[in-house]
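Researcher: Last one for today. Full complex below.
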Amino acid sequence: MGKPKFVYVTYIRTTPEKLWAALTDPRTIRKYWFGMTVECDWKPGSPWRLKFEDGRTADTGEILEADPPKRLVIGKWHNQFKPELNAAGMSRCTMEIEMVDYYPGFGRKAVKLMITHEAESEQGAPLIEAVSGGWPKVLSNLKSLLETGDVAFKR
Amino acid sequence: MIDTAKFKPKTIYVTYIAATPEKVWQALTDPAFTTHYFFGFAVDVEPKQGGRFHLFWPDGRVHVTGEVVDWSPPRRFSCSWLVEGMKDFGELPQCLVTYDIEPSGEAVKLTMTESHSWDVPRDILKGGESGWPKILSGLKSMLETGKPLAVDTKEGPPPEFMAAVKKAVAEKPWLKR
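Model: Here's the assembly. Have a good evening.
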């Protein structure tokens, strides 16, 4: 068995630039990530911090790669609010953005977003199980927000 | 009726949709709706357990045949699934596709589970892994915006997928004990 990982793909009617902005702008993140905010300057080597609405730190990490609007890698991702998930160790999340072909004749585009969240060690299974439940909610909301201007659900 | 106990979940895709369970149910079972997001396929389902299930190409050819295993509107729709409309596929064992629809806050959680009765090679699973996110992203867009999502349908399954299907059909590993 390799390192546990979770892969999620969604297709969104948007542009890579708008999707990149939605993934990195704290005010937008708060809308689709159930009130969570992010502190980060999105430069390689910079710290990354996910916070609850009340200011408590949820997760910490570090930007390993930032290549707008194509690729973002958050490493040393470490849960700080659930002891059993903190004990599961660090993980790495890779976000890849790719334009999918135009629909011939319609001029419409779809953007593919692929999230790969991989544990740093084989002990990371509980963490990957937790993010497997969380990412579909967050990314479904992100897709709704970009396509309709509103999220699918608040909680 | 197939023995569902023999089928193990292999690919699961979850999406949350701003809609009612009834609307999601309709999107999965109404041919006028599926043509907009399911690579152009029209669904045709006999609405009862044991009923026939088909996906048709726009020109009327059969792509998938199956049998309804669970018909519980608007919560669970499950059917056996045999891809007849592509070379070699019709000789693979049928799989089981189950949609579960549950309210989740103001939204609806849709879970697609693709289950198999044999030890399917990874490369064959890649077909569903690449296809379901396109199909179900399109379904969500249709329900939330009324417009289909422009996903390139000519891309097809990954190259290793076709080779793996051919190999499996030649070796028939599901017949071995």
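The mean pLDDT of chain B is 92. Chain B is about 30% helix and 35% strand.
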